[in-house]
Amino acid sequence: MNTLRLSSIVYKSLVLSNRKLTYNIAKYCLSKVTKMSSISSIADLGYAFNTDGQLRKVNNNGEPGDESFQFNISNDHQECQAHYEVLGAAVTEHVYHLLETQENLIKLPVPKGTTEEDGTFIFVSKDYDKKDVLMVLIHGSGVVRAGQWARSLIINDCIQTGTQIPYIRQAQARGYGIMVLNSNDNYRQDKKIPHTGSSEEHAKYVWEEYIPETKASSIVIVAHSYGGILTVTLADKQKKQFEKRVKAVALTDSVHSYSGVKISKHLLKISQNWVASSSPLDTPMKTPSSDICRVSAGHPKHEMTSSKCIDSVFKYFDQILKEQNDK
Q1: What is the CATH number of the domain that holds 205?
Q2: Helix axes 199-209, 227-237, angle to 10 degrees
Q3: Contacts of 25 (CB under 8 A, 6+ apart)
Q4: What DSSP letter does each residue of 147-178 carry, written as one string?
Q5: Which residue is catalytic, options 225, 259, 296, 307?
Q6: What does the CA dihedral 122, 125, 128, 131 come to, rounded to 10 degrees?
Q7: What CA–CA distances, in Å, run from 64 to 58, 89, 102, 123, 162?
Q8: How far is CA 273 from CA 4, 18, 90, 316, in A?
Q9: Angle at CA 155, nearest 5°, toward 91 and 272?
C-alpha cells in the first residue's frame, strides 16, 4: 500500500472517529443538563446577534449588549460543555433561519420524498435550476451544517466570517443559482439517513439527483477543508458530467491531498486552493506539480480562509467564466 493511500485511510479514520466522538460528547453533555434539552433558540440562552453580526449576551433591555460568549458558565465543566453544544445547535438553527428568511433560499429534501424527521436537506435559491451559472457551496467536516464555514467563528467572531452568507450574496448579485450542501447531517435517531449516511454519500446523491435537473452550462464550486475531498471525489466518480459542466473550483485550505484521488488535468486547469498563510492574499505558494495551484488566503488560521479570500474567489470565477464566454 503506497504512502498516499495509507495517509488517506488514516485521515478518514481520524475524521470519522472525531465525528463519532463529537456526537457522543454532545449527547452525553446534553443528558447531564436535562433542563437545557428544550432550548431551541439563541434567545432562550440569553444571546442575540447585534447589527454587526456578533453574538452578544442580551442586556436588561432585551437587546444585544457588550458581553460576548463565555464558555465557563459554572465550575462544572460538563455543564459548560453542554451549554456550548446547545448554543451550537441553536446557532445552526439560526443560520438555517437566516438562509430561508433573509437570503430567501429554499429547502430541498435529501433523499427526495423524506421529511426533516427522517431525512436531511440542502438549500437552493429560487430558480436555481434555471440559471446559466450555478454555484455549489460545500463546507468542511465536523459540527458545521449548511450555511456555515466555522461554528466557532459564528460564536466568537461574527456571522460574516463564520457563515456562507457573504458568498451567497455575491453569487446572488451576479445572478448565479445557488446550492448549499449539508453533508454532515447524516443521522436521525442514531440511524444513518439513507443515501446520505456520510459526507461522500450526501455529495454523490445531490450530484446525481439534483444537479441533472439544472439548466446551468457552468457550475462553480467553493469547498472548504474536507469539502475539498468531496469535490475531488466527485470529479473522479462523476468524471463525464463534472468535466462537461464544472468550469471553476475554489478550494479554501482544502485537505484533498488525503483523499487518495489523482487530480485530473481538468481539475488542475480550473481549480485554485487558497491556503492558510501569513503571506499577502493571492501570493503564490509552493505547490507540487501534481496538485492544485496554491495561493495564500491572506490569513494563517484554517477556519478564516474562506472569509478572507472571498473577493479573490469571485474575481477568479469572473475571469474563468469570461474566458469561457469569449470562446
Answers
A1: 3.40.50
A2: 50
A3: 81, 85
A4: TBS-HHHHHHT-HHHHBSHHHHHHHHHTT-EE
A5: 225
A6: -150
A7: 4, 19, 19, 29, 19
A8: 19, 24, 31, 11
A9: 95
In terms of Cα–Cα distance, which of 288, 217, 298, 187 is closest to 253? 298
- Kindly report the number of other CB atoms within 10 A of residue 7's CB atom: 14
Q: How far apart are CA 78 and CA 95, in angstroms?
A: 26
Give residue for cell 462544572: 76
Separation between Cα atoms, residue 12 and residue 105, nearest integer Å: 32
* Full-model pTM: 0.88
**Predicted pLDDT of residue 42:** 92
Residue with the three cell numbers 460528547? 25
* β-bridge pairing 218-224 and 133-138: parallel
Sign of CA dihedral 305, 310, 312, 318: positive
The SS3 assignment for 11 reads helix
State whether residue 256 is helix, strand or coil: helix
CA distance 187 to 118: 8
Number of domains within the chain: 1
Q: How confident is the model at residue 22 (pLDDT cuts 50, 70, 90)?
A: very low
The position carrying cell 463546507 is 139
225 catalytic per annotation: yes
- Please check the confidence at residue 28 and state whether its pLDDT lies above 60: no
DSSP 64: B
Rounded to 10 degrees, the C-alpha dihedral 311/313/317/318 comes to: 20
Write the CA distances from 4 to 147, 156, 190, 232, integer angstroms: 31, 36, 33, 15
Decide: helix, strand or coil at residue 296. strand
Q: Domain limits at 160? A: 3-326
Mean pLDDT of 213-238: 97
